[in-house]
Specification:
This protein is mostly helical. Helix content is 68%, strand content 0%. The chain has a domain of 76 residues. The chain is built from five helices and no strands. It comes from Linum tenue.
Length: 112
């Protein structure tokens, strides 16, 4: 599916993260991957290879076993990464519930 804007993709992305535990697993993966990135940059460059393994590992687990769908990153890797950081920021600042309510009031594109 082609998306015309980041906002349009965001609605789809959030529809693929509808369960709270999916979002929580993403949060943990993003947090640990950022900590690993910081460690790699400061102490050991070899650890850098673990950053995507950690981040995607937690996220993909949540898609396969919690949400039971295919990760959006398979079809839209860049937009998915940007949306993951947006979701992380909203969760970190407590704005995720408000965003879920906002998105619930508009149609979400479906993929078949």
């Amino acid at each position: 599916m082609n998306f015309r804007s980041m906002d349009e993709f965001w609605g789809f992305y959030m529809s693929q993260h509808s369960k709270p535990w999916t979002r929580r697993w993403h949060f943990v993966g993003t947090l640990l991957s950022l900590v690993t990135l910081l460690y790699a940059l400061c102490f050991n460059w070899w650890v850098l290879s673990l950053v995507p393994v950690i981040g995607y590992g937690f996220a993909w687990y949540s898609h396969f076993f919690v949400e039971r769908n295919v990760p959006a990153t398979f079809g839209h890797p860049v937009w998915s990464l940007l949306c993951d950081y947006k979701m992380f920021g909203l969760m970190l600042t407590g704005g995720m519930d408000k965003e879920i309510k906002r998105l619930g009031k508009r149609p979400v594109l479906q993929t078949y």
